[in-house]
Task: inverse folding
């Protein structure tokens, strides 16, 4: 059957091109793969190959013709014994279907984000539960051990997690209890073992990948984002990555620029990830257990300074905290302080000090940054009409910026002052003790910000 | 022009040869059709064709067993067809339609099939190598005999994470076969312009990983090497490297001006070493008739045409699909 050869699109953006040269003439036999013509696009001269066997019946566009639109018939290929005249006059150019032709016009709100969940103020554990003072370090260890006991597919890998017992002693005793099959010391190979962990999660396991610090995970960020976060979507829902990436994040003490970055906003910006940044030991435990069970990739941002701090942890056989549920640490009426991670220690201390001066601050710990419980924040701001955010990360394109914009969108008419942020300074972390103190936010900065928004 | 280079000491029964012929032809005709649809604007973005390299995946699939896994880079259509994924689903993904393997949300470089143990389809050069080792880790952890075929190109073979992975794979004796499809050009950069190493498989020796170089234009040579590699892996001896010497006839992607190699170089390999022609020659020697082969050609043409029709008819994803599959509920 005679077939028309159409002017091809040779790049994602090509709309027209020049038919520079014909390498065949009418009557020539061609086989699939033979070069038929040279076509000039905006970028290059490209060879154009025959896709079927046949005979060049007719050439419809002469060489040297410029601005030949994509999909214009340029030649006719016929089979043995056929004439080019068997084909009707060139048809109108075929064009790729417009979306409107194949699907009904999308509704106006088709790309609007789905509705956000409502406020959930239910307690994390039943009233009267026995509480045990526990460090964040031990709470994390307990969470890992409990989940490894409950599920044989859970394993942990990373630098110094096994024999050394964890660079920060988070995995103390874990090797002894679970053995080398499930507690795996890796070479210093962040890029490689992060990728290996994601592959293992596709193979039906639930890896916990420990980074000695999140700073080193920058070598592995391609696997966290391109391999773990995007695969569920790219596979049309077939394949998720049930994996936890965890380790200390943000500034410790005097470890300078390359070991002191807070990655909250980086990871919180990525659809497909869940991002947790706990403050208390109870949250560290309950949220890590939830993270290990979650079928999605979870970025779990801990803090070295908090590791040794003790908090009350409920004594329960299986204590978990759902993602996307903020905790109100103290109720107040004059201003809402929104924080997470180590920022909470500044916020709580500032709230105590402010209370002594007659200013009542409501303090909200977001606990997870994705999903983000904005409902609790908005409800609070509607009551206090003022908001200050507290975090240690850099101030530009920060979580605070995002929260401020959400408040503006959802509660603009309720605001009596701009939303202010207390964040790290816009500098690499200095080593000198005095400069490091200046680079981080502080209780004083939080108090000053509250005074500014309350005009007191 | 048949079978000039085929090694005569490698033999296979006619029935097997017919399967290789059919499977390789399906890939070639499918890719030709994809190129055509791209030219018509029905396929967008990047589209990397596998034409010329068919013997690599078909040869290795012939040694795979149920439960074995495979993962590759972005030149992935051939791998999907060879492991039994449906041509309609692959073509519809190329056209970005709901009938595609990823509901139109992945495209040429991002397709997966849990059912066929095909783990993508990855657009980041080299990233699939540790991912493949991780799949192999999961099999070792579960204590089964499965292996993972981890395919990558000569270009990816210069990525650092490949060597991080070699190190861990041998250290932990992971059942992974690293398949370097050396088609001699990383996009437009020839191997000799990218490295002073004379071979890629030999780099494994630094990590104590055995390997070999294989004629990738001869499906029986690929099969023979594959048999050795899977035997090594299934015996718990750790990874194995196959550097398979192959050649792509088409450009790196559809928008490749092909200025880095001569037309004669391409033509010479097509005429003298073509994988499909070699099997065709062997089949005729083994007593197959032209009519038999023509019947296969016709069957393949029908499958490919049907896939193109399906890929044109399948609707675009519903707008609501924008917000699905981002996370899965706990």
Result:
């Amino acid at each position: 059957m005679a077939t028309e050869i159409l002017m091809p699109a040779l790049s994602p953006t090509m709309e027209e091109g020049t038919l520079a040269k014909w390498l065949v003439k009418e009557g020539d036999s061609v086989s699939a793969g033979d070069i038929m013509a040279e076509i000039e696009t905006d970028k290059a001269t490209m060879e154009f190959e025959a896709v079927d066997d046949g005979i060049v019946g007719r050439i419809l566009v002469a060489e040297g013709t410029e601005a030949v639109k994509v999909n214009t018939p340029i030649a006719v290929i016929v089979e043995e014994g056929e004439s080019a005249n068997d084909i009707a006059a060139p048809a109108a150019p075929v064009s790729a279907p417009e979306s409107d032709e194949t699907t009904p016009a999308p509704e106006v709100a088709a790309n609007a984000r789905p509705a956000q969940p409502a406020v959930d103020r239910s307690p994390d554990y039943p009233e009267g539960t026995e509480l045990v003072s526990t460090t964040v370090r031990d709470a994390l260890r307990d969470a890992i051990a409990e989940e490894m006991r409950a599920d044989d597919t859970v394993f942990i890998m990373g630098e110094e997690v096994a024999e050394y017992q964890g660079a920060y002693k988070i995995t103390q005793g874990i090797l002894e209890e679970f053995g080398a099959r499930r507690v795996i010391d890796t070479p210093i190979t962040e890029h490689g073992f992060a990728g290996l962990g994601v592959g293992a999660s596709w193979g039906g396991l639930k890896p916990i990948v420990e980074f000695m610090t999140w700073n080193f995970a920058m070598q592995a960020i391609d696997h966290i984002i391109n391999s773990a976060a995007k695969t569920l979507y790219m596979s049309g829902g077939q394949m998720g990555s049930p994996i936890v990436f965890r380790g200390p994040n943000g500034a410790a003490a005097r470890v300078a620029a390359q070991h002191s970055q807070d990655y909250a906003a980086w990871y919180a910006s990525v659809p497909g990830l869940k991002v947790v940044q706990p403050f208390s030991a109870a949250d560290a435990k309950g949220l890590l257990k939830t993270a290990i069970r979650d079928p999605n990739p979870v970025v779990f941002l801990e803090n070295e300074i908090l590791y040794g701090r003790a908090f009350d942890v409920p004594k329960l056989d299986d204590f978990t905290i759902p993602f996307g549920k903020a905790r109100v640490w103290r109720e107040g009426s004059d201003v809402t302080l929104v924080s997470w991670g180590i920022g909470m220690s500044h916020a709580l201390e500032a709230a105590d000090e402010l209370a002594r001066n007659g200013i009542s601050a409501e303090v909200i710990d977001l606990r997870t940054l994705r999903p983000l419980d904005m409902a609790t924040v908005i409800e609070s701001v509607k009551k206090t009409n003022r908001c200050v955010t507290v975090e240690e990360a850099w101030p530009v394109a920060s979580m605070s910026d995002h929260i401020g914009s959400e408040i503006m969108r959802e509660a603009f008419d309720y605001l009596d002052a701009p939303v202010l942020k207390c964040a790290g300074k816009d500098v690499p972390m200095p080593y000198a003790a005095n400069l490091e103190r200046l680079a981080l936010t502080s209780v004083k900065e939080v108090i000053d910000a509250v005074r500014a928004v309350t005009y007191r | 022009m048949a079978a000039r280079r085929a090694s005569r000491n490698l033999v296979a029964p006619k029935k097997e040869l017919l399967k290789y012929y059919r499977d390789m032809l399906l890939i070639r005709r499918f890719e030709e059709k994809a190129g055509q649809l791209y030219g018509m604007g029905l396929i967008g973005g990047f589209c990397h064709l596998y034409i010329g390299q068919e013997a690599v995946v078909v040869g290795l699939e012939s040694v795979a067993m149920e439960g074995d896994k495979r993962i590759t880079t972005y030149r992935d259509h051939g791998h999907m067809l060879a492991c039994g994924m449906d041509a309609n689903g692959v073509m519809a993904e190329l056209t970005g339609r709901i009938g595609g393997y990823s509901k139109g949300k992945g495209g040429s470089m991002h397709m997966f099939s849990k059912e066929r143990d095909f783990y993508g389809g990855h657009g980041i050069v080299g990233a699939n190598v540790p991912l493949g080792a991780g799949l192999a880790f999961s099999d070792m952890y579960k204590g089964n005999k499965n292996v993972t075929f981890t395919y990558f190109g000569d270009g990816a073979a210069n990525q650092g994470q490949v060597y991080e992975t070699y190190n861990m794979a041998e250290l932990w004796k992971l059942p992974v076969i690293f398949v370097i499809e050396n088609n001699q050009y990383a996009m437009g950069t020839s191997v000799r312009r990218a490295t002073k190493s004379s071979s890629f498989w030999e780099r494994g020796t630094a990590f104590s990983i055995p390997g070999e170089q294989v004629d990738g234009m001869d499906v029986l040579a690929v099969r023979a090497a594959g048999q050795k590699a899977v035997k090594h892996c299934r015996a718990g001896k750790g990874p194995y490297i196959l550097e398979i010497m192959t050649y792509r006839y088409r450009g790196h992607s559809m928008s490749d001006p092909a200025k880095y190699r001569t037309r004669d170089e391409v033509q010479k390999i097509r005429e003298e070493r073509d994988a499909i022609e070699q099997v065709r020659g062997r089949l005729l020697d083994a007593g197959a008739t032209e009519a038999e082969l023509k019947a296969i050609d016709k069957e393949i043409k029908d499958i490919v045409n049907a896939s193109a029709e399906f890929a044109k008819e399948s609707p675009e994803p519903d707008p609501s699909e924008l917000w699905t599959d981002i996370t899965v509920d706990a």
Q: What stands out?
A: The radius of gyration of chain A is 30 Å. Confidence is low (pLDDT under 50) at residues 90-94, 96-102 of chain A. The CA atoms of residues 394 and 424 of chain A lie 5 Å apart.
